[in-house]
């Protein structure tokens, strides 16, 4: 009853403003020279966070998109059509910049189910451009994804080529939204939508100032995923504020002949649902990084978040060790094969 009375008071208040309001007022959402019922409902939506409020204030996309030296841990929930099961994975990312091809290049490094880099630059101190990625190298044409003076409603459409094949994509600045994540609540995030010609669906991304990407939602008729920030670290600033990252570095070893070895990194976040990721450098057969999501119930013994991955790890004080049985399909031999791997490491600095 109190809620209904409050709504009536709001509506009556905004209706009472009709006689002193004019067209082009920001509150006159339908430009009918009247502040009436539609405006009252809109105002209630803004107050409750259901509607994005219009503003002409410009923002610099770089302040939201890229944070030099930051590290990120994300939780990714998706749906596997082949098994009909929900899938939970963790992803690790970090930002760095360097001079490549005589231009300052911003690099996003991602370690998840797939491992890749994405490359960006700023042209004429104004336009934020996507210029390449791990899989395709440098694009034949650059993709505009933002500017130094963005306002809600801005649309950035690009026709571009990758390996001489034409594509199209569109980024739209939808406005601002408060976003709740496991890492905390981030206010006034930029909400950006992305459409492209090579993949059906809409990708919604949320960026927090001086933090970076805090959430993504991808939806299609038959596929979807949600990516949510669970932890971020940039120098002495962390989200959540009590963030602890236990880091172990060492080597993996292939037990079969010929023996092979390379580096591993193991990151454990005790306060984030006891989640962890292990990254294998130059993983055999794949010839690239492989990242596996782990979880623990006791803080010492870790298993994969997905039952089809046969891996186990144990940490004891400053040491970590484990085994991994990697099963794959050998296209040449037309049979299933496996690799038996052991790994170990010691604790590094946070």
Structure description:
It is a single chain. The chain is mostly beta strands and 350 residues long. It folds into three domains: 2-48, no CATH class; 62-239, YmcC-like fold, CATH 2.40.360; 246-347, Porin (Beta Barrel), CATH 2.40.160.90. It has three helices and 21 strands. It has helices spanning 2-15, 37-48, 62-65, and strands at 71-80, 85-100, 103-111, 115-123, 127-133, 137-147, 155-162, 165-181, 184-196, 202-208, 212-219, 224-234, 237-239, 246-254, 260-269, 275-283, 288-296, 301-304, 310-316, 319-330, 335-347. Strands 1, 2, 3, 4, 5, 6, 7, 8, 9, 10, 11, 12 and 13 form a 13-stranded antiparallel β-sheet that branches. The longest helix is centred in the first third of the chain and has 14 residues, at 2-15. It is globular and about 60 Å long. The termini are far apart. The model is unreliable at 1-52 (pLDDT under 50).
């Amino acid at each position: 009853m109190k809620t209904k009375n409050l709504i009536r008071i709001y509506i009556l208040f905004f209706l009472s403003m009709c006689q002193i309001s004019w067209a082009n007022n920001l509150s006159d959402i339908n430009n009918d020279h009247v502040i009436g019922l539609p405006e009252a409902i809109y105002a209630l939506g803004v107050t409750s966070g259901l509607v994005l409020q219009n503003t002409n204030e410009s923002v610099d996309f770089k302040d939201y998109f890229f944070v030099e030296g930051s590290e990120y841990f994300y939780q990714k929930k998706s749906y596997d059509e082949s098994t009909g099961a929900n899938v939970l994975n963790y992803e690790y990312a970090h930002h760095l910049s360097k001079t490549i091809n005589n231009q300052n290049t911003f690099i996003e490094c991602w370690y998840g189910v797939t491992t890749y880099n994405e490359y960006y630059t700023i042209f004429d101190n104004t336009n934020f451009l996507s210029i390449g990625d791990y899989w395709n190298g440098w694009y034949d044409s650059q993709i505009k994804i933002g500017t130094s003076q963005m306002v809600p409603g801005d649309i950035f459409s690009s026709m571009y080529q990758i390996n001489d094949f034409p594509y199209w994509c569109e980024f739209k600045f939808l406005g601002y939204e408060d976003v709740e994540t496991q890492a905390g609540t981030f206010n006034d995030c930029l909400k950006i939508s992305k459409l492209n010609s090579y993949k059906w669906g809409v990708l919604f991304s949320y960026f927090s100032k001086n933090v970076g990407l805090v959430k993504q939602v991808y939806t299609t008729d038959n596929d979807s995923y949600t990516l949510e920030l669970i932890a971020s670290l940039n120098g002495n600033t962390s989200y959540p504020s009590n963030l602890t990252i236990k880091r172990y570095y060492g080597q993996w070893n292939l037990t079969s002949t010929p023996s092979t070895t390379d580096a591993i990194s193991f990151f454990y976040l005790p306060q984030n649902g006891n989640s962890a990721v292990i990254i294998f450098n130059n993983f055999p057969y794949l010839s690239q990084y492989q990242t596996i999501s782990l979880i623990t119930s006791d803080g010492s013994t870790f298993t994969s978040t997905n039952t089809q991955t046969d891996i186990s790890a144990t940490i004891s004080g400053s040491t970590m060790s484990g085994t991994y049985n990697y099963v794959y399909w050998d296209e040449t031999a037309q049979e299933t094969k496996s690799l038996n791997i052991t790994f170990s490491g010691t604790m590094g600095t946070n």
